[in-house]
Amino acid sequence: MMNSKKLTEKHIIFKKLRDKLAGIFLDRTTNYVIFLDALPK
Question: Would the pTM count as exceeding 0.85?
Answer without folding.
Answer: no
